[in-house]
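FORM 7B: Structural annotation worksheet

SECTION A. Query
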Amino acid sequence: MSEKTYSNTSLLTITETAQCLNISREMVYNLIQQGRLGVIQLNTRFKVPYSEIERFIKENTVYVSSDTFINQIFDVDTSTSTSSFNSVELFEKLKENFNNG
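SECTION B. Predicted structure
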């Protein structure tokens, strides 16, 4: 199956937007309701400009060190933690965080 290609002027459905961002339709609606993702309303339907998806990704991309990432995943108190961790536990925690959005 080939991926769709969008231009800056493309208008996406909520489902297409969810697929682009790899999130649920419900989360897309939440982002719209929170004012974090702009839309165009056509009668009773919402369309999301592809340029808005690009803006959202740029504004919400953060760069962290691997230590910060692991500490956030495990809610580690760095003043008392040790540097060793269980890789199975890390995988399960990553999977849990991914599934919870």
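SECTION C. Observations
The radius of gyration is 18 Å. Residues 73 and 97 are 8 Å apart (CA to CA).

SECTION D. Sign-off
Analyst initials: ____
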